[in-house]
Automatic annotation (TrEMBL):
This is RNA polymerase sigma-70 factor (ECF subfamily). It comes from Rhabdobacter roseus. InterPro entries: RNA_pol_sigma-70-like, RNA_pol_sigma-70_dom, RNA_pol_sigma70_r2, RNA_pol_sigma70_r4_t2, RNA_pol_sigma_r2, RNA_pol_sigma_r3/r4-like, WH-like_DNA-bd_sf. NCBIfam families: sigma70-ECF. Belongs to the sigma-70 factor family. ECF subfamily.
Length: 208
């Protein structure tokens, strides 16, 4: 009878977790690490803005993951569970830093006044810059909430479980965060609109 050996790449995340727990073979955990290390790193980087610190956080998160795998419920999505560990760890570390009065490196966002005049007329660049500027004005909790919902496509229930709050609370926080982002976005759009108007007036003056 022919025995078909399944490639490790074909296992689902949940199967890899089960195999690692039951066999304690490192190759199953290594497969999970290869799938998610870069994603976890990018999520950490989006919150702390420092590559070196994001790497440290990623390392710490996977160490925590080894210890917590035994608590994973196989009827849940592994990716959602891992992202919840990631967000909670990053938020805990950020709160510690805030209590100490320290600040992780903030991403440099170009202000409208500093914008390259050649790119002011590039619509896609303007839209991206507006969104970056608007997001930069949200606090860490608001940015994290929006990322979980719209970047990671997590459900209201999953977000509620991660944050340890009710689904109603998540809906209310999302509503407020979206409203704040929209307000900041249109404020930036208005500022850039005024800047563009002034530039056009200047160009018209120089031509004449």
């Amino acid at each position: 009878m022919e025995v078909i050996v399944k490639s490790i790449q074909t296992y689902s995340d949940e199967e890899l977790v089960h195999l690692f727990i039951t066999t304690q073979r490192n190759r199953y955990f290594e497969a999970l690490y290869e799938r998610y290390a870069d994603k976890v790193y990018r999520k950490c980087l989006s919150l702390v803005k420092e590559p070196a610190k994001a790497e440290d956080f990623t390392h710490d998160i996977f160490l925590k993951l080894i210890l917590k795998l035994g608590t994973f419920k196989e009827n849940a999505r592994f990716s959602t569970w891992l992202y919840s560990i990631t967000y909670n760890y990053c938020m805990d570390q950020l709160r510690v830093v805030q209590k100490r009065g320290e600040v992780y490196g903030e991403e440099e966002i170009m202000t409208p006044a500093e914008a390259d005049l050649d790119s002011v007329f590039e619509e896609d660049e303007i839209e991206l810059r507006r969104l970056q500027q608007a997001m930069a004005q949200l606090n860490t909790d608001e940015k994290t909430l929006l990322m979980m919902k719209y970047q990671d496509d997590m459900s209201i229930r999953e977000i509620a479980e991660v944050l340890g709050v009710t689904e109603s609370a998540v809906k209310m926080r999302l509503l407020r965060s979206r409203a704040k982002l929209r307000k900041r976005y249109f404020e930036t759009m208005l500022f850039l609109g005024l800047l563009l108007s002034k530039l056009l007036e200047l160009i018209k003056y120089l031509i004449n």
